[in-house]
């Protein structure tokens, strides 16, 4: 599982930091490093830009995995620099931002936008594969998720907007239902697509979701 | 009770429907004018539902205007803007106001329209909406609850005979019939040979097919449609014919082409009728029909 992130515009970061002059910066050694949004280099670059802006950077760290238990330990180790700051700027996915917020009473500001949970299909190219709907239909769709890969999340086949196998909203993107059709046909399982799919249960697990594992 | 439109479909006569585009705003004069112009020339009029995801006066409002003025409406309903509660509620309302024909559509994607940041709903798809209509007719709603008063509709859908690839569309076409589509209005067709091929397939089923006729207003527009509008293919000879029209005559040529196509479809009984779409130039529909010999 990889959290795919994108850095917010510097203007937005600046706006969020208004009135907060001492900044402690946290990066993440896992997903955000891989997507080049919150690794060692990006954290350094962010520090430079903040200083140019006239902010005081009280310190920084790149936590191995910002979303796991080690975050608490790392924050304790850097207690001094964190205490003297007026806010924490977190360059990890939203999960890391949440985790940091659990342990710190100061404003915690995200520097990244969390886009999706995705796979890397070729180096540097990430795409969303699952919208975590709570009731998986991949068995009927030859392993391609129509909720995620089809712009309209359709369950019963392509819309009329598909054109030359591409999607109505983005001609560089394959139409999910053309792909599903082709794969089912190759598997000799077109009957799967002939079956009427009833309306989806969008409350399979009502939000916010929680689960207790015994 | 069968609707006027359904009776016409079952009469075996060549059925002509057309389309009304509601205004963007509260000035409904032009829409009224179009309705008055067409209500006796065509069997029924579709009212588009935020066509191309552009916010407009609602299709149900247009349908009521058609009823008030003595015409027969076909309510277009897309799944883009309403969840299953809102869709069902609107069907109940439409029924109580005498609207009896519904065309079920998935709807264009939000980003192609004029409210690009809106949340697309797509809680149901066009098939599920068709099935929902049949369920409401049985006196139940989608939640399995009893209705105090059911509905009865002549329900249809669309099909894109020029889609590429065509196979998934045909499969969906069959599914739409299985869940209760009684009629189809097709996306614009221009290649009659290709359409005849589609009709050969479609004739296996006992549904009525109205071929979509979209008025071409110039060679440029024809080319644009071919290149940019999904599922529309204008053959080169028609583009050439429009381009060869004398200056200022392209529109008349387009009317002539549309009329010619309608006449050909009728003469050979290729399909059960046509659905004429003039896209904002509804006042030209009578000219198109005249060119077709009606
Ligand atoms: S159907 Fe799609 S969104 Fe739902 S769990 Fe499966 S892959 Fe994820
Ligand atoms: S073109 Fe294909 S992927 Fe795009 S919205 Fe339509 S069915 Fe979905």
General description of the model:
The complex is a heterodimer of chains A (214) and B (294). Helices cover 31% and strands 24% of the residues of chain A. Chain A is an alpha/beta fold and 214 residues long. In chain A, the strands form three sheets. Chain A has a four-stranded parallel sheet with strand order 3-2-4-5, sandwiched between helices. In chain A, strands 1-6-7 form a three-stranded antiparallel sheet, with no helix packed on it. In chain A, strands 8-9 form a two-stranded antiparallel ribbon. Chain A is built from nine helices and nine strands. Chain B is an alpha/beta fold and 294 residues long. Helices cover 40% and strands 15% of the residues of chain B. Chain B has an eight-stranded parallel β-barrel, surrounded by six helices. In chain B, helix 3 links the parallel strand 2 and strand 3. The longest helix of chain B has 18 residues. Chain B is globular. Bound molecules: iron/sulfur cluster (2 copies).
């Amino acid at each position: 599982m990889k959290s795919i992130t994108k850095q917010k515009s510097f203007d937005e970061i600046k706006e969020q930091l208004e009135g907060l002059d001492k900044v402690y910066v946290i990066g993440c050694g896992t997903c955000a490093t891989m997507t080049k949004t919150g690794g060692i280099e990006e954290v350094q670059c962010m520090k430079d830009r903040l200083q140019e802006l006239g902010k005081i950077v009280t310190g920084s760290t790149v936590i191995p995995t910002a979303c796991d238990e080690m975050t608490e330990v790392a924050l304790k180790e850097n207690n001094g620099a964190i205490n003297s700051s007026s806010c924490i700027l977190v360059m990890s996915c939203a999960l890391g931002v949440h985790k940091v917020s659990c342990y710190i009473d100061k404003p915690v500001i995200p520097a990244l936008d969390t886009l999706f949970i995705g796979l890397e299909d070729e180096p540097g190219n990430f795409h969303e594969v699952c919208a975590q709907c709570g009731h998986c239909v991949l068995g009927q769709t030859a392993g391609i998720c129509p909720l995620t890969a089809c712009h309209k999340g359709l369950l019963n086949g392509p819309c009329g907007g598909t054109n030359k196998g591409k999607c109505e909203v983005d001609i560089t993107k394959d139409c999910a239902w053309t792909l599903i059709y082709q794969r089912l046909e190759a598997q000799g399982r077109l009957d799967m697509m002939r079956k009427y799919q009833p309306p989806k249960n969008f409350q399979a697990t009502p939000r916010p979701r929680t689960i207790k594992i015994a | 009770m069968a609707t006027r439109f359904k009776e016409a479909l079952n009469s075996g006569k060549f059925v002509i429907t057309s389309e009304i585009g509601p205004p963007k705003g509260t000035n409904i004069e032009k829409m009224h004018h179009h309705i008055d112009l067409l209500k006796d020339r065509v069997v029924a009029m579709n009212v588009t539902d935020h066509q191309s995801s552009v916010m407009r006066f609602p299709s149900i409002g247009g349908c009521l205007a058609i009823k008030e003025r003595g015409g027969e409406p076909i309510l277009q309903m897309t799944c883009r803007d309403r969840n299953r509660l809102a869709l069902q509620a609107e069907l109940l309302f439409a029924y109580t106001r005498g609207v009896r024909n519904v065309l079920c559509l998935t709807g264009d994607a939000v980003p192609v329209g004029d409210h690009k940041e809106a949340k697309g709903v797509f809680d149901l798809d066009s098939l599920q909406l068709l099935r929902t209509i049949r369920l409401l007719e049985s006196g139940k709603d989608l939640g399995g609850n009893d209705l105090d008063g059911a509905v009865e509709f002549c329900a249809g859908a669309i099909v894109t005979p020029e889609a590429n690839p065509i196979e998934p569309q045909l499969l969906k076409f069959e599914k739409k019939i299985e869940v209760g589509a009684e009629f189809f209005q097709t996306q614009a067709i221009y290649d009659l040979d290709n359409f005849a091929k589609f009709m050969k397939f479609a004739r296996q089923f006992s549904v009525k097919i109205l071929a979509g006729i979209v008025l071409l207003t110039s060679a440029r527009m024809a080319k644009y449609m071919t290149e940019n509008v999904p599922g529309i293919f204008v053959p080169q000879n028609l583009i050439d014919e429009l381009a060869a029209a004398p200056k200022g005559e392209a529109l008349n040529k387009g009317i002539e082409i549309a009329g010619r196509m309608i006449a050909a479809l009728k003469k050979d009984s290729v399909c059960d009728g046509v659905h004429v779409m003039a896209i904002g130039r509804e006042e030209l529909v009578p000219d198109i029909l005249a060119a077709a010999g009606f």
